[in-house]
Amino acid sequence: MPLKLPDQLPAIELLKKENIFVMDDSRAHMQDIRPLKIVILNLMPLKITTETDLIRLLSNTPLQLEVSFMKLRSHTPKNTPIEHMMMFYRDFQQMRKERYDGMIITGAPVETLDFEDVTYWDEMTEIFSWARTHVTSTLYICWAAQAGLYYHYGVPKYQLPKKMFGVFPQHTLQSKLPIFRGFDDVFQMPHSRHTEIHREDIEKQHELSLIAESPESGVSIVMAREGREFFITGHLEYAPNTLDKEYRRDCGIRDDVDLPKNYYKDNNPSNEPLVTWRAHANLFYNNWINYYVYQATPFDINTIR
């Protein structure tokens, strides 16, 4: 089944060019199916890019998904047209009485700030608490993963001397979990962050399970509440050229960013990126939707607790 997306969402035409089958609201209403409701809280500056990256991965499931976009009332994005935000996004306050089968909370360019110094921290914590009673399973990505672990479990973050930047091999630590069904023992994941969390802090919390990590990039995926929460420190959703764009944006401007590791062919930025994470990215999101959303969510969405 394809995804059910808002009419005129830019991602629809972008993904059709990649031969990915999506459909808008008008066509979806013709199908007598209860779609899984997925909400994305998109905190990234380039909203349309992030929308497209996530929808690309969600499109691989055989289930019909209805995707909605949430925004913060306490923060106004600077890099996305206001018309786009008004057409496709709703404030959390407008959505707080609704329930969702799955939720994705993206990273945000605020990781070097203390959590409490983020201008929208109060609203974020309200959403974190709300998700526990209104969503079957939630994916926290990058900064959101660090923020969620800090808020729910008191796990601190630590400043890195240089940006963790590139594509790094990750090792599955609990390979029999459904989220890793079909995975190899080692898989690749892009990382782009200035802070990290430590294994020993995860291990202090008996409610948390470290399920994937890397010798170089550290803690990778943490699971809680039997899969109702996943905290992912990297970016499986990244498009092939995302790290390249970040590198060229920051090159010569910042002194804490090196060439992204394990990314360009022959480690030469004049060459094309070598995409090594796409298959496992699709598998991860497909497993999440199937085993932790579809098979765990109640038939009556209003009974989610």
UniProtKB/TrEMBL annotation:
Catalytic activity: L-homoserine + acetyl-CoA = O-acetyl-L-homoserine + CoA
Subcellular location: Cytoplasm
Positions of the catalytic residues: C142 (acyl-thioester intermediate), H235 (proton acceptor), E237
Annotated positions for site Important for substrate specificity: S192
CDD domains: GATase1_HTS (cd03131)
UniProt protein name: Homoserine O-acetyltransferase
Enzyme Commission number(s) of this protein: 2.3.1.31
Keyword Cell cycle: no
Family to which the UniProt record says this protein belongs: Belongs to the MetA family.
Gene for this chain: metA
GO MF, one example: homoserine O-succinyltransferase activity
Function: Transfers an acetyl group from acetyl-CoA to L-homoserine, forming acetyl-L-homoserine.
Binding site for substrate: K163, S192, R249
Matches recorded under Pfam families: HTS
Site annotation Important for acyl-CoA specificity: residues: E111
This protein's UniProt keywords: Acyltransferase, Amino-acid biosynthesis, Cytoplasm, Methionine biosynthesis, Transferase
The keyword Transmembrane is annotated on this UniProt entry: no
Major enzyme class: transferase
Listed pathway(s): Amino-acid biosynthesis; L-methionine biosynthesis via de novo pathway; O-acetyl-L-homoserine from L-homoserine: step 1/1
InterPro entries: Class_I_gatase-like, HST_MetA, MetA_family
PANTHER family assigned: HOMOSERINE O-SUCCINYLTRANSFERASE
SUPFAM superfamilies for the chain: Class I glutamine amidotransferase-like
Domain of life: Bacteria
Provenance organism: Xylanibacter brevis
